[in-house]
Amino acid sequence: MKLLEEPPEKTVFFITADNTAAVIPTIRSRCHKLFLHPLKDADMQVFLARHQLTDPDSNQRLISQAKGRPGYALELASRHHEDLTQIVEELASGASRALSPAQAERIAKEERGFSTFCDLLQERIREASLTSCRKGDQSAANRAAEIYQKLIYLRHETDRFNLDKTLAALKAAAMIGRL
User: Fold this and answer.
1) Residue 164 sits in which domain range?
2) Cα separations (Å) of 39 from 70, 72, 111, 140?
3) Over the stretch 25-69, which tens digit does the pLDDT of each residue have?
4) How many domains does the structure of the chain reveal?
5) How many Å apart are CA 122 and CA 173, to the nearest integer?
6) CB–CB of 173/122 below 8 Å?
7) At what angle do helices 113-135 and 79-93 cross, to 10 degrees?
8) Which Gene3D superfamilies does the protein's record reference (predicted)?
9) Nearest to residue 35, comparing CAs of 60, 59, 68?
10) Residue 12 is assigned to a structural domain of this protein
11) Which string of DSSP letters, residue by residue, matches the chain?
């Protein structure tokens, strides 16, 4: 804390927070907000091409899923994340009724596996809610929004209390089955 109060000359700290209210006021008062905006699709295409990811179909899927976050697009392009995408698609389409314990364990053991799995589930739930709204099915849209909130809560509590990610992945997968 002393380092933040009296930093060495010409020192710049980058403090990242997704909830600025969680940063204590004495630190927050010394900060300047820097808003980083997602890249546009055309810029994402250039970025993916620079990283030798030039398959048009895959790139379009990555751009759609990454929502302007280039690092996340690279993460999604890895083999493990392609597997996660396939699992989520199968769960969302009803092709698979449940996540197997072995799949859940693999998700939990991978670095950022659980958080990426939740990201992909959240995106599918959001899409389901939007589709329901467009069709005028308010009941289905509300159900999807409710499931989305429950998934956010599950993810937050799992991270906050260091809960078993295997069990949390199984719970999260079961949620999408209720769409």
Assistant:
1) 82-179
2) 8, 12, 25, 32
3) 988 888 888 888 999 999 999 999 999 887 888 888 889 888 999
4) 1
5) 11
6) no
7) 40
8) P-loop containing nucleotide triphosphate hydrolases (3.40.50.300)
9) 68
10) no
11) -HHHHSPPTT-------S-GGGS-HHHHTT------PPPPHHHHHHHHHHTT---HHHHHHHHHHHTT-HHHHHHHHSHHHHHHHHHHHHHHHTSSSS--HHHHHHHHHSTTHHHHHHHHHHHHHHHHHHHHHHHT-HHHHHHHHHHHHHHHHHHHHHHHTT--HHHHHHHHHHHHTT-
Dig out the tokens for 94 from the structure.
């009803």
147 token code pair: 């499931």
The answer to whether residue 93 is domain-embedded is: yes
Two tokens, residue 25: 């006021």
